[in-house]
Write a structure and sequence with these properties.
Structural class: alpha+beta
Oligomer: single chain
Number of strands: 26
GO biological process, one term: sulfur compound metabolic process
Radius of gyration: 26 Å
CATH topology of the largest domain: Sulfite Oxidase, Chain A, domain 2
Largest sheet: 5 strands, mixed
Pfam family, one: Oxidored_molyb
EC number: 1.8.3.1
Protein name: sulfite oxidase
Keywords: Heme, Iron, Metal-binding, Molybdenum, Oxidoreductase
Length: 557
């Protein structure tokens, strides 16, 4: 952790620790029924309830007092502060290099972010985009900043002055702000009932986990959506995919030219790298870098397209060429584009069935799912399945894009949050093959369940990365003391290491007579004998979250 971050976090420690402890007591108080197993000792439970309320209220009040003095509420961040010097927009605009110090604006505040550059999780390049300008247009795109306590606290610690505004002058550069907003106005219409949004700009949404278990091949309307930038609205007649082998060998393909090539169909499960990150975030009570997903960021579909290797050969690729990586770039918008890469050996093996897809479950790709063309890389995290492709190029090194270098990395568990610096993030490996995982879809956590013959029926899915097949799923109703084997009801027939779909499973978990609640755990093992760990390990980027899935249900006998 850098010295700057230590100074910031020390300011927050007192208020957060007291408030956190109070919240824990409240949580224990509200769950006293479970702690007493709903026994008949109502007097003891009642005493515990009132004791917890009194202590919790006292500590919570104390925490709020600290919080009031040490924390800058969202609505007060960036407002005018007396006693600070004032600077015009023209003065701020001169500070765009480390030599001149890098300044930015936020609402009515002026901030010197030079010393924070190396510690920014998104890298220095991201901050340099806003050098000498307002943060607001960028935060309108890269959401999760303005509503994040830690981000606001860090920003306010960098405050050096107020913005000197003329009467009636807008705080933000309104033309640019409007341009950024307008890109999202062109986003497609969505069904707000089927998918629950985590974020609207960019649009990120998923179905209820119970719905995922209803169909082995997921209907398109129930497939989660994770956009990183505004969704392009492509004119198919003018669309071109550029494939660059090297500086001398490149070719542009129309969509019809690609469709005229030999077709390939691939059945594959797409799983977001951050699937189940919400559970880990709750366990450690910390923010993750991106959206915190439930276990609903996965689906299985039939993809139709053309083998990527065939397209590369049509563009001039020869077997004697020795590229190390292949980079995929999306169609560019005003906020840039999304790009990432994978090792070329994954494409070179035809059995991996890496295709450029233009259909999903028998329908043309929707805009949210990558129209007109996306790359499908079975066995690899969804973050590498770039949507709305515009360019493919062979490289000697990994992609240098910020999306590849600063996101979807498996960091050491000692790095807890925004203090992670650019060097640490870049040195971490990019997530590709995701670990073995399983999730309980039915019943849901906290649900009331009925027993049938002294048992509770449990259903879920399991999957693994790298083409490994799920071999066993085990389910426990007593916090891992005993396990029952689940029956795998649906799976694909392909053999590992080319097995690219999830498995559905069901299990009947015995319930002891008189039990009022049940802790259900599920764990899977794959064909390489990998199994899920019992406990979480913190990862700030929120990826590869695969600890044993644990829920609690109440039993109605």
């Amino acid at each position: 952790m850098g010295s700057f971050s230590k100074r910031i976090l020390s300011k927050l420690a007192d208020s957060r620790s007291v408030t956190y402890f109070a919240a824990k007591i409240f949580s224990f108080n509200f769950n006293y029924k479970e702690n007493y197993g709903r026994k008949k000792n109502k007097k003891s439970a009642r005493n515990l309830k009132w004791t917890g309320t009194i202590i919790g209220s006292a500590l919570f009040g104390l925490g709020l007092t600290f919080f009031k003095h040490h924390h800058e509420p969202h609505h007060r961040a960036g407002i005018f502060k007396s006693g600070l010097p004032s600077y015009t927009k023209e003065e701020v605009a001169k500070h765009t290099t480390k030599q001149s110090r890098i300044w930015v604006m936020y609402k009515e505040g002026v901030y010197d972010v030079t010393d924070y550059m190396e510690e920014h999780p998104g890298g220095e390049d991201m901050i340099l985009q806003a050098a000498g300008r307002s943060l607001e247009p960028f935060w309108a795109i890269y959401l999760g900043h303005e509503d994040n306590d830690e981000v606001i606290d860090i920003l306010e610690a960098l405050r050096i002055g107020n913005l000197d505004l003329k009467p009636g002058e807008p705080v933000c550069e309104s033309p640019e702000f409007k341009k950024n907003r307008c890109d999202y106005y062109n986003d497609p219409e969505r069904h707000a009932v089927i998918l629950k949004p985590l974020c609207m700009k960019p649009y990120i949404a998923g179905p209820s986990p119970e719905k995922l278990r209803e169909n082995f091949m997921t209907p398109n309307s129930y497939c989660f959506v994770h956009n990183h930038i505004p969704v392009p609205n492509v004119d198919f007649s003018s669309y071109r995919l550029t494939v660059e082998i090297d500086s001398e060998r490149k070719k542009a393909f129309t969509l019809n030219e690609l469709k005229d090539m030999k077709q390939q169909c691939v059945k594959a499960t797409l799983q977001c790298a951050a699937n189940r990150s919400l559970e880990m975030s709750k366990e450690f009570e910390r923010y993750v870098q991106g959206p915190a997903w439930e276990h609903n960021a996965a689906y299985t579909a039939q993809w139709k397209g053309v083998l990527l290797l065939d397209v590369l050969k049509a563009a001039g690729y020869r077997e004697g060429d020795c590229p190390q990586h292949i980079e995929f770039e999306s169609i560019e918008c005003r906020q840039g584009n999304y790009s990432t890469s994978v090792p070329f050996c994954r494409v070179e093996d035809e059995s991996n069935k890496v295709i450029l897809a233009y259909e999903m479950n028998g329908e043309p790709l929707s805009r949210d799912h990558g129209s007109p063309l996306r790359v499908v890389i079975p066995g690899v995290a969804g973050t590498r399945w770039v949507k709305s492709l515009e360019k493919i190029s062979l490289q000697g090194k990994e992609s240098r894009s910020s999306w590849h270098q600063h996101h979807y990395k498996k960091l050491d568990c000692t790095f807890v949050g925004p203090e992670v610096n650019e060097i640490i993030v870049e040195s971490a490996p990019a997530v590709e093959e995701l670990p073995v995982n399983s999730a309980i879809c039915k019943p849901a956590d906290g649900e009331d369940v009925h027993t049938i013959g002294g048992k509770v029926e449990v259903k879920g899915y399991a999957l693994s990365g790298g083409g490994q097949k799920i071999t066993t799923v085990e389910v426990s109703g007593d916090e891992g003391k005993t396990w029952v084997p689940a029956k795998i009801t649906h799976t694909d027939t392909c053999c590992p290491p080319y097995h690219f779909t999830w498995a559905f499973w069901t299990a009947d978990v015995p319930v002891q007579k008189g039990r009022k609640f049940l802790h259900i755990w599920a764990k899977a093992t794959d064909s390489a004998n990998n199994t899920q760990p019992e406990k979480w390990k913190w990862n700030y980027c929120g990826v590869a979250c695969n600890a044993i899935h644990k829920i609690r249900v109440f039993v109605l006998q």
